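Q: What structure does this chain adopt?
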Amino acid sequence: MTTHADLRVPTRFGADREWSERAARPLRLVAGPGANPTGEELAALGAGLIRRDELAAELVRAVRPNELHRALAAGPDGDVPEPLRAFYDAVGRRPSWVDDTLLARGAEACRTFGMDAGLVLAYGSLLGGYRTAAALEPLVRTGRLAGGETLRRIQETSIWWRAVTAPGGLEPGAGGYRLSLHVRIMHALVNARLEADPAWDWELRGVPVNQYDQASTLGVFSTSFLLHLRLLGVRVSRADAHAVMHLWSYIGWLMGVDEDWLPHTERRGRRLLYHFLSHDPPPDGNSVALARALIDMTDDVTTGWRRRYERERALSVSCWLLGRAALRDLGLPYRPPWYGLARIGANLLVSQGLGRLPGGRARLLARSERQARAQFRRWGATLPPG
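A:
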């Protein structure tokens, strides 16, 4: 196995500073004073590309994949191999900063955002992440989020997102907790397989699933998520934003992100995300292919006017959230932002209006549940309870 001592900072790091600084400029504007990384932080960024989640890596080295899959299905309370029991024990020792009250508020806040949360995660966070070639090669190598797999993977991610934001979903043994650990171990298995692949380009990419990319991905589920919600006119109170960042910091910890790169607050999250994007490589062929697959993901489950509407809606809201330059980078056509503007109009009435009234939060939660079930029906799937 390749070790840290064998590796140098991959050449993808800061490969095109002119492009990355231009792409990161909006984040620079909201990151606050002192946003530029220090020399120590720059060194840590480069080192993050050659560091893996060692706790999960140790587990997959100790247990054969077939046995590990069976043990994961049995759950934390089942009869599991000793290395997996040690893994469960390690993640069961929660950091002292975890606050159950904030976790509950952050999860509830995420649920109140309704369909706007789904739009932001797909066409702001995920599509925005495709703009850089940083973390895409493992997705393409494993067939994740490509071609006909796209809609299925979006459904799976939606189910996981609902599980971690369900009431009590992150309690030990609960659905969100178990799914998050499962995803963490799956990442480690993918890492082990790609690290053993002679075709993997270590000099260019470093560790396949590395700490840098894991922390950056956490940023799009937390920091970028909140920024894009506000662009759709969604009301995000200061208390809710703080709780959402706390929630995703704990989820990131559960999934193996180093403590040093957990965002905790919006300001810190914006600064970290700026550091990542301003040193990411520009888009490549994977970026274009994955972006097109995401825009076209409902083509197989829609027909006629609905198919065209879904694609035009996706392009329109993507333009609003990411801007014309991002879509150009992704090889996607520009569309006027009619759908983003429509969401702002709707949210002035619902999120900014109804949400402030007595009982408004409960109504937003009930509305969100209806929207989630309707979305899964349009996908030709059934949303599980939770």
